[in-house]
């Protein structure tokens, strides 16, 4: 299985997911950099993503929506805060309304993704940080941990096609 571990730390207010892929770091990096690849895995398999904007640079923004099995759309946004290709990116991840406007009722998640060479593959660590325990618990109840695990599990198929 691609995802090695998932750990919720209520003291540190983080959710950490570690995955390993049988591909070099630069190829795994492309699943973040290229919006067409990104939308093939961001979100659980039954909620595919469509990226309408993906300005992949520090200070840049992404806008997307995921479409559920019944056609329901869930909108989100990112603001890239740091990009150090091909090893690290950081961004703020938030929920949005149907017009793409950030939702004030939902938490903003601070994400840090690290890609490291690991033998003949890549180890990807995704740390999602929250401002409060209530925010962490809210997204866990919404299924974030399972959703992220399922989402990252789809990356292997994309990497296999790129060989």
UniProtKB/TrEMBL annotation:
CDD domains: SRPBCC_CalC_Aha1-like (cd07814). InterPro entries: ASHA1/2-like_C, START-like_dom_sf. Pfam families: AHSA1 (PF08327). Residues 23-159 form the Activator of Hsp90 ATPase homologue 1/2-like C-terminal domain. Belongs to the AHA1 family. This is Uncharacterized protein YndB with AHSA1/START domain.
